[in-house]
Design goal:
Structural class: alpha/beta
Radius of gyration: 25 Å
Order of helices and strands: HEEEEEEEHEEEEEEEEEEEEEEEEEH
Distance between the termini: 20 Å
Number of helices: 3
Largest sheet: 12 strands, parallel
Shape: globular
Helix content: 10-25%
Number of domains: 2
Number of strands: 24
Mean pLDDT: 78
Length: 317
Amino acid sequence: MSVGAFAATGLAFITMAAFGTSAAMAATAPLLGTSSTYAVIAASTITNTGSSVISGDIGLSPGTSITGFPPGVQSSGTMHITDTAASTAQGDLTTAYLNAKGLTPTVNVSADLGGTTLVPGVYNAASSMSLTGAVTLNGGGDANAVFVFQAGTTLTTATSSSVVLTNGAQACNVFWQVGTSATLGTTTNFAGSIMALTSITLDTGANVSGRVLAQTGAVTLDDNAVTVPTCSAASPTTTTSTTTTTSTTSTTTTTPVATTTARVTPTTAPPIPLGSPETGAGGSATSRSLPLLPLGLGLLALSGVMGVLHRRVRRLR
């Protein structure tokens, strides 16, 4: 192989190693602690109108006023009003909120999230964050893919907006840290845990696969469904069925077929995938490209030696 070929090969390996490392750095997602079992947490009041269905614990501390249950229904979990459990959950929520707020952003957001497809990472808006229409969160085939959204002030969704999870993304691994208050518009379909410093309002018919957790203010509900999410151990796969029939028996065999979905990256710099939160399946992203870096450096060194030997041979001739 020529000196030029060796050099080109070495440079290629170094480039691959560098990109592989940047795409696989892990970061820690917020740990919810005891607040992970709560669908709703508020500090001052919890007010409901209509037939809301809450699947998970409900906590209120230090306030004592919770109204609208019934007609609202808590389909699972326990209601904790100004007790030790509620106080502890509020403390753990504060820790998780500060943890999420302190994460280093991988993408700065300056526009409405609607119409975008995002990969795992930490998305930061210096002031308000808004959603009109649908935002798609693409897990890249990783069931542990984590998405953290940091809103400097408010989080607001328009009517009928939605958070769409694809390619392994799970609601249990999506977190929305809100600097003041969050408002979900009418019939919004939302995914992820909202951790607001002040208050959270769900307009009529807004549904959340996640949590609505307010630290210092109220949670206001209106004919909503809020469900604490659970994490699957593995990403969902597409299967096909093949049926074989004989004259005496009928056997159905289901054969998993691996599917690959192209990873769509945002127009900004690709974010860094993060590790899994306490509420989901454990683990964190790791890099398989790091061994290529020393190999590439070795090849560069070898190309240099070959260059020296080549010049000496030419002198001898």
